[in-house]
Amino acid sequence: MVVSDKEFHIQLNKEDLCGAKYALMPGDPGRVEKIARHLENPRFLNSNREYTSYLGALCGENVIVMSHGIGGPSTAIAVEELAALGVKTFIRVGTSGGMQPDVLPGDIINVNGAIRAEGTSKEYVMVEYPAISDFKVTRAIYDAAVALGVRQHTGVVHCKDSFYGQHSPERMPVAKELEEKWNAFIKTGALASEMETATLFIVCSTLRVRAGAVMLCVWNQMRTQENYKDHGVFDTENAIRVAVEAMKRLIKDDKEEEGKSFLSLYLT
Q1: CA dist 188 to 53, 125, 140, Å?
Q2: Which residue has the higher pLDDT, 163 or 3?
Q3: What is the value of pTM for the model shown?
Q4: Which residues lie below 8 Å from residue 235, measured CB to CB, with a gap of 6+?
Q5: For the chain, what is the radius of gyration of the CA atoms?
Q6: 139-to-24, 52, 111, 144, 146 alpha-carbon distances in Å
Q7: In this structure, is the dihedral angle defined by the CA atoms of residues 240, 70, 86 and 268, taken in order, positive or negative?
Q8: How many helices (DSSP H) and strands (DSSP E) are in the chain?
Q9: pLDDT in tens, 145-203
């Protein structure tokens, strides 16, 4: 049943979020509970369409964990509706396929920019505008990975709409265009390919909220083509640990900044 005071797709309202300003967002609804276990006192909120949500706490602040589904359209809806309820900081916890030989299955990618080869972000702003992360979020992710001893890469990912257009481009009517662009992205250093981060960054830029992304490299098709004997890595625990630790650092930094601002006003 649709309740009038709840956001239409995620079926949550401000009362449900209890003032949460921070969100950890996987694509897969099945990963939500796994992330929520890292929070204090996690509890299930709701599940509607691709949006499954839990609420918990980190460092004394409420944090929502909610899936955003596959692709840009569902991600944009998730971010829009959470932002409408007061969320100001988003960290995507996702999976990706490596595009450079040194990006190994099991590594994480700290995304600071995304190639806008998808369609959703183009309905927010022209393609010349870059999809970039918030510096403080990126720095927190970097520091978290270092502290936890998790192998990471920081850089740009390729973001597309068609999973099979990337993995089987040769059978598509526009095969030549897909393959030429793919090779160009590799030559310019794109680290991995996924489907949601460009939308996340553009929507957050538009809404003037901050975002970052932690991606697990599950496998690397370029290494497979070069006959590296890699095994896929599908355990997202390291990416989750890094994202949670990064969020803790952001919360602590925010509290320190709030304290400084209050002191400045008091002294003034």
Answers
A1: 37, 23, 25
A2: 163
A3: 0.95
A4: none
A5: 19
A6: 16, 28, 11, 8, 11
A7: positive
A8: 9, 10
A9: 999 999 999 999 999 999 998 889 999 999 999 999 999 999 999 999 999 999 999 99
